[in-house]
Amino acid sequence: MNENQKYTIHMEPNFGFLKPIDVPHIINECKEKWYNQTLCKVNSSLVRLGVFNEGEFHWHKHDKEDEFFFVLKGELYIELESETVVLKKHNGITIPKGVLHRPFVKEPTAVLMVEGDSVTPTGDIN
Fold first, then answer.
1. Secondary structure element (H or E) that encloses residue 27, with its range
2. pLDDT tens-place values along the chain, 126 residues long
3. Please, is 26 exposed, middle or buried when counting C-beta atoms within 10 Å of its C-beta (0-12, 13-18, 19+)?
4. What residues does each domain of the chain span?
5. Of 2, 28, 51, 112, which residue is most buried, by most CB within 10 angstroms?
6. CATH 3.30.70.3270 applies to domain 3-116
7. Would you call 104 exposed, middle or buried from its count of C-beta atoms within 10 A (0-12, 13-18, 19+)?
8. Are 60 and 36 within 8 A, CB to CB?
9. CA torsion angle for 91, 97, 98, 99 (degrees, to 10)?
């Protein structure tokens, strides 16, 4: 199976300007194992919601863009080459461009991500 087929990723922003976004509703309705929805665009950045109910993402990096993660619910683990970072609810971290990483969860987790609009969520290597 192609790595990308393990995930549901919606690249296009789902909400335009001046449109309220009901994040808890999106989280509660999600039944997929690994879901990523682009919520909106802010200048040249995208705000994405990740609902990670089970499992892991593959090892990847972004060559030209940093990536910010902020946990809304649950715990997000981000494996790096030298350590594993654990983000609890309301914790955030910025992964610098070029850093190889692999997010995974042990329980249902929801995460806001902010990244440049040129980012491919699956990374620049698979």
1. helix 23-29
2. 344 458 899 999 999 999 999 999 999 999 999 999 999 999 999 999 999 999 999 999 999 999 999 999 999 999 999 999 999 999 999 999 999 999 999 999 999 999 999 888 888 764
3. middle
4. 3-116
5. 51
6. no
7. middle
8. no
9. -10
